Amino acid sequence: MRKIAVFSNMYPSGQHPTFGIFVKNQVELLRSKGMDVDVVAIDNPAKGKGAALKKYGAWLTKSYFYLLKNRKNISLTHAHYAFPTGLISLMGKRLWKLPYVITVHGGDIDKMAARGGRIAAMTAAILQNAEAVIVVGERLKQDVIQLFGVQEQRVHVMSMGVDTSVFKPFSKEEMRKELDIPSHEKVVLYVGNIIEAKGLLELVEAFKLVKQEVPASTLYLIGSPKDEGFMEKLAKHLVEHGVKVVQQMPKPQNEIARWMAASDVFVLPSHHEGFGLVVLEAMATGTKVVGTDVGGLSYLLADQAGILVQPKNSSSLAAGISQGLNGEATLDQQAIRRKVELNSFESISERLLAIYRSIEEKAGQSK
User: What pLDDT does residue 228 have?
Assistant: First the structure.
């Protein structure tokens, strides 16, 4: 196999180390398997119409000239997110007959394509012309097939994978000493972007109820503020409900793994979630997970692998967190191990390489 070109609108940088870290992890995984992988990506999370036009314009120009220069050495391209990232792969196929793979992560279908009009039409064209469409959740598979007319045999359900060499069980006592967390404290942890769609307003309301039942509980939030307006809204919500949180900026994955292992409950109260890789990472450390019954979380936490609660419902969320803290929830450890193993880097890399080889073989036969 020759070179693989990966395009993404999210990729980490020194300044933003967690921005699209899951894409970088997959790229490094492919390289560890001996693959020659080039990446052309956006590593700036800046929002706003002006900033978006500037960074996407520069990225599209760079991507075009990259393909123009390297087209004869590329086996296929792999775009993360259908629109707008997939446009460059579609262009590569139409101009130079380069086959491509698209990974759909959720927001590109739930948000971008849901706007309708030209974006929905372009999303359909991108997906229908891909040799393979990878979706991170079963619900997304049905959306891609039913809403965008993609043939079922070309759709593959596959997560971005969890690095079980990083996310693994640790001694809770040792991690608490290392992180200076009191041994008596009941730790509820959230890791992710600090945005409204992650259900953080409901989490504040729920934690107020949890605190009444479990006075020793503390809520930790680790993540990037993405919206100043929401940060103000969240701060006001905390004051109104008399809730205190310990908020910290993003951390390297090895530190995140330790925070997860030190916690009593990991919580992800999203309004929608394509897959919820962070939940799988928490499960791999042995920590109980509470998540909303949406998207990929419905699958990940089914079969008593975690505690599912109703989305946008602070009472249901509070009950789930309390169950986890009080030890009332009986989880199936075997089911948890199965899901972690199925989504381990080793399993994911084998499946992804099989898709690549199949595409390359078909491309060779058609020449």
Answer: 84
